[in-house]
Amino acid sequence: MTLSEKRSLISALHKEYSVREICETLGFNRSSFYYHPQEDPSEELLRSEIEKLAGRYPRYGYRRITQLLLRQGYTVGTRRVARLMKNSNLLVSVKRACQTTKSLQGEKPWHNRLENVEVSRQDQVWVSDITYVRLKGRFIYVCLLMDVFTRMMRAWQLSQHLNQSLTLKPLKEALCHNVPEIHHSDQGVQYLSSAYITTLEAHGVEISVARRGRPWENGYAERLIRTLKEEEVHLNDYENITQARDRIGHFLTRVYNQKRPHSALGYLTPMEFQQQTFS
Predict the structure, then answer these.
(1) pTM of the full predicted structure?
(2) Dihedral through CA 262, CA 264, CA 265, CA 270, nearest 10?
């Protein structure tokens, strides 16, 4: 007998007998008569909001979606968000990028200076790297330059050529406003060219490079590139280089710097973290 049928029978007999007597005689659990299951409205509201956020930020994982919900005033934990995202098939997977730079051969006087460095202040360490973006029938390239402590983008450059200007132009632009103590990159020819090295040395910047075959030694920049790819590039088919420059520029300066919560910053945006730290 279903719960609904039990309730109907009890209701029919209730005029002559008490609920307790009916349940004891028929062997029913009395609490089932009084229990009226209801769908938690907050669960449906939360699920709806998660779907909206996942649609707006389709590469965000459950931790970052949780932080966005907390910012909106919801009281919710990562486990609940993960469960709801899993039930709605909204959990994301990660795509990996390929290598874009060619290393210089032979002995070099530079090494990885970050191995024993604790980054604790703004402009202590800048990192840079290059990635590719596929257009119809060809590739274009993006150079990124970021301050590690605040995760703020210092400069970026997009070009159809993988040449010296791709890295040197954003470096000179960034140095007009701030100067780092250490500049870290991989051993790509664009970073170890005479012009690039001379520019760094002229500003008194220490040069640090990751060892060949160890991309994790430039992990800060690698994670930045992964974010750019997953949350912007992989979600769009750019018609031309102008559209790519506009969209990528908007993501880096407006979304990444000002709207995207960062786990390493206590889920503040780089702009919020910089303002909170130096206000």
Answers:
(1) 0.65
(2) -50
Q: Which helix (H) or strand (E) holds 158?
A: strand 153-159
Rg (CA), the chain: 28
Residue with tokens 């994301």: 92
Give pLDDT tens digits along the chain (279 positions): 555 565 566 666 666 767 677 667 766 665 655 544 444 447 788 888 887 787 677 667 888 888 888 888 888 888 888 888 888 767 755 444 444 555 444 455 788 999 889 999 999 999 999 999 988 778 899 999 999 999 999 999 999 988 899 999 999 999 999 999 999 999 888 999 999 999 999 999 999 999 877 777 889 999 999 999 989 998 888 989 999 999 999 999 999 999 999 988 999 999 999 998 876
Q: What is the DSSP letter of 140?
A: E
